[in-house]
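User: Can you write out an input/output pair for a complex, sequences first and structure second?

Assistant: Here is one pair. Inputs:
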Amino acid sequence: MIRNPLPWWLASPAALLMLAFLALPMVMLLGLSLNPFVPGAGVGEGFTLSHYADLATDDYFHTIFGRTLALSFWVTLGCLLIGVPEAWVLSRLSPRWRAVSMVIVLGPLLISVIVRTLGWAILLGSEGVINRSLMALGWIDAPIRMMYTFSAMTVALVHVLVPFMVLAVWASLQRLDPATLQAAASLGAPPTTVFRRVVLPQVVPGMLSGVLIVFAMAASAFATPAIIGGRRLKVVPTTIYDEFLGNLNWPLGAALAAVLLVIVLVVTLGTNRWVERRWRRVFE
Amino acid sequence: MSTNPGFLRLERLTKRYERITAVDDLSLDIAQGEFVCLLGPSGCGKTTTLQMVAGFVAPDAGRILLDGRDLTTVPAHQRGLGIVFQGYALFPHMTVAQNLAFGLQMRKLGATETNERIAQALELVHLQDHAQRLPRELSGGQRQRVALARALIIQPPVLLLDEPMGALDAKLREDMQIELRALQRRLGITTVMVTHDQSEALSLADRVVLMQTGRIAQMGRPHELYEQPNGRFSSTFLGKANIFSGTSDGQMIQVGSVRLPVPPGSPPGAVDCIVRPERMRFASSQALLQGEIVARVFLGNHWLFQISTPVGDVQLTEPNTGLPLPSEGSRVGLLWTPDDARVIARNA
Amino acid sequence: MSSPARLSWPLRLFHSLFAVFMLAPLLMVVLVSLTDKGYIALPFSGASWRWYAAIADAHDFITAFINSLWLAAAAATISALLAVPAGLAIAWHRFAGRDALLGLLLSPLMVPHIVLAIALLKFFTLIGASSTWWGLTLSHTVIVLPYVLRLVVAAATGHERSISQAAQSLGAPPWVVFWRIELPLILPGVTGGWIIAFINSFDEVTMSLFVASASTATLPVKMYNHIAHTIDPLLASISTVLIVLTLVLMLALDRFFGLDRVLSGRSN
């Protein structure tokens, strides 16, 4: 049955690494979520669904999940709204400008999220640059509270994640045959119609890919919501941090993580399948 | 024959993929120094056959013998055959000289001899000044010549070519065909070339092996194959053919409502009567067929006419002698000598 | 796309605003790093290099920086050593379970880092390896391996089989074909992958927060903890240094590979 054992030998080190340090720990995490928590003593023995029950019934967690999903939704929408046109613009630029723009748009991906978020904290704080400038101009009397708001988290996350959307749509655009645009124009279509009826449908795979990546990363984002959202605006990842490293309630943290993982997988794989069914023609 | 007629022997080679038999019980003897072309449409098994000889595909049955030695289970890198690949497969990260040196390095040849052979090889293909170039800096024709030199420099007993001219434009292809033939003659190297281009096969080969669905349809010298096709496939793949299907009584063939003469001795019954376009001519009297010219195409050194007749569309070619020829729409009579027709029993 | 039809002015404006949006936070960081004040301020009322000089005294930050460099190099190298053979197997061989294997090796891209981080924290605690360097290194290796793998698979897939066959026909046994022909040709993909893996490991904060400790602190973790207390210009100057270093690396990446290609995991 195994005709040539060579590929197995080649792949086994990497596979073993993943199985040992990814698959196994994840399974253990699931098990951990089913252990009871003994305050003061840590993880107890035995099996309990109480943590999941907590998540299902406690309003505190409902709010957090709701906020996380809302955040992911708005961030994804924001990235779509500005990422798609930007990718389109990039594809129409002359090579020289495109090279520069690429560095500006994609470069931030290579810079630590801490640095990028620090920049937003500087911009948005009450002692921050925006407030100071507005006050110096006399437009406002007191600083506007921008940090530690939902909107600020959304904007900062859009900044962090939009390069992924641009990349995904850009990849689709590169596969677009420019001759199809010329054909449409020659048949009488004005530029907006060309975009709407010729470009957009062919770009859907890229948009889909971008949506999935951005949504998953927004729901899982830790550093940016922690810094911009602060102590009061909790999302699931920061709550996991609290439970794990704060309250030391590892089983509850594990349960939160498990639910987050399931939500992310369901949404991404589910959306993938739905769009694939609808746009099957476009996927060669 | 003084040369070894079975120098390269393919014995009942078979290759199956899932439900398709790519090569079906194929046997072929190739003489030393012979230039053989495997010709056929895509999917006929010619490339698979070549890959089995090269050692990249293992046959499901059959043997490959080179000068009596059984190569069938010998790994590709130990067969020592010279191969020119369809895309040339030059090593992109090595210069022309390094590409040429590679095969010699595998044979642990000394530096002096290596350099000598490289110089000789470059001269053979007229690329002496290009030794330090990288493949991406060369034109298509130059790359092809490097690929050829690289295969020949190891002095292989057999040269295998997989559609080597495919990527070249028409004029360059013609020039390369002439060069290749001259080279092969000069070196006397046994050569097997795969191609789907029938005119290429006709002009280069000592022997053409026409393949269809994994089997040999017909084989022989180019002239033989062309003049004496053994069936519908052979007659239409090599050159153009007008095929009249009907019933013959030994002297005339009834095709629809028309009777046409057949050569004496041709088989009776349900037959195909094949007449090449260049054997037909216009005739005002004693015409065998009447028709109307539907289209007329100028092809440089000859004209091609498409004529609508009671037995279907017929093609006729006339050399470009400068004499006036009938125009589109004219009614014409067609004539040929019965001996120019070839009659073959029709398979059920 | 070679037809640069002139972009309408609304699109040009949009593009400029987008660029401003992307650069604004980074610009802020750079500007603040030049202030002469002891708190966050723009340097328009006085600029100074004091916060850069302060880096020299921030020994713990320097140690963390060096830790991060070593960690990233180790994670990238181990990933490459594992991903190259696996990537070649996936690209050049057909075998049962190939798709499942590819899914397994790319799965870290789908798993939220926070989830994996706590899973590994639990795992390491169980085997008594929490807060160790090799635990941290393996954690990083797991998350950056997909980046190397994607580029190796792309490079290997783009490799023409006939070139390997040509080498074989000239007498090269399989290991020579690999060493002298295949490896050199996929090396650009491997290198690009290594660099991306390095950068991702260096920047990673979530994994390190959970799996590291005070003794194995990485730079992003130190910065994160510092921000929690106060946002002071030292962070800005350190960040600016990071931005400049990344910029250099980025330009090199773009020059040799094309930034968009290497970031999305494709090859020429």
